[in-house]
Amino acid sequence: SFSFETISASLKSNENKLNKWSVTYFTRADKLPNYKTLIATDRSHNYNVAVDILSSSKHQFKTSLTYRQLNVFNAQLSKLKPDNTLLGRAEYTINEWKGFIVGNILYELGAGQEQRRDINYIEVPAGRGEFTWIDYNNDGIQQLNEFEIAVFQDQAKYVRIFTPTNQFLKANYTQFNYSVMLMPRAII
User: Fold this and answer.
1) What is the pLDDT of residues 93-105, one digit of tens each?
2) Res 21: pLDDT
3) Cβ neighbours of 162 (radius 10 Å)
4) 66 and 86 in contact (C-beta within 8 Å)?
5) pLDDT of the residue at 29
6) Which residues of the chain register pLDDT less than 70?
7) Cβ neighbourhood burial of 146 (10 Å; 0-12, 13-18, 19+)
8) DSSP assigned state of 124
9) Bridging pattern class, strands 59-72 and 83-96
10) For residues 105 and 110, what is the distance between their CA atoms, to the nearest angstrom?
11) Other C-beta atoms within 10 Å of 67: how many?
12) 110-130: string of b/e by CB count within 10 Å (b at 16+)?
């Protein structure tokens, strides 16, 4: 079993208006079992700011930014490590000339943790796999950097297996997407 406590406070503009903003803070404290008691293991402090500018039907903008501080009190019980993470998102939408031009731009960034995966190559019957082993250093020991995608089907003797571990690695990501569509039927 486990226990957690969440406390939050926020300040928001009028939800019924098209242009809105909000500032939110919340904290979460986790407790995990240690014999017959629950012991505090970690606490996070989360700060969020969001703005939506939707008053124009032709140009709309939404953004949010979240910063999180994680403090770990008991590293023996918690698998987490102290960390600071940042998540951000900005989205811009356009709709011009009665829908002739419709577009969307999205930019997202983040930092956090992802589960580490071990990579193994397993031998299968020839032609059933995707990879081949080439012993580059002639030591007779299979190493991860010695597996290549097989050029010929009869060399495809290995498949790659990902095994999740109980370890987490720091991960950062950035995403940028855009789309623009022209619809002539909107003005014809």
Assistant:
1) 999 888 899 999 9
2) 96
3) 8
4) yes
5) 94
6) none
7) middle
8) -
9) antiparallel
10) 17
11) 15
12) ebbeeeeeeeebeeeeeeebe
Reported as type and span, the H/E element at residue 102 is strand 101-123
Name the residue type at position 105: I
Report pLDDT for 187.
79
Q: What six digits make up the tokens of 75? A: 């590293």
Q: Are 2 and 17 within 8 A, CB to CB?
A: no
Terminal-residue alpha carbon distance, the chain = 64
Residue 63 in tokens = 């953004």
What is the pLDDT at residue 51? 96
- Token pair listed for 8: 């939050």
C-alpha span between 184 and 136 (Å, rounded): 58
Cα 107 to Cα 123: distance, rounded to the nearest angstrom:
42
Strands 101-123 and 147-149: unpaired
Q: Which amino acid is at 95?
A: N
Of how many residues is the chain composed? 188
For the whole model, what pTM was predicted? Answer: 0.64
Q: 3-state DSSP helix/strand/coil percent for the chain, to nearest 5?
A: 5, 65, 25
Q: Is the dihedral of CA 129, 134, 138, 143 positive or negative?
A: negative
Chain-centroid distance of CA 8 in Å reads: 23
**184 vs 182: CA distance, rounded Å:** 6
Single-letter amino acid code for the residue at 38: L
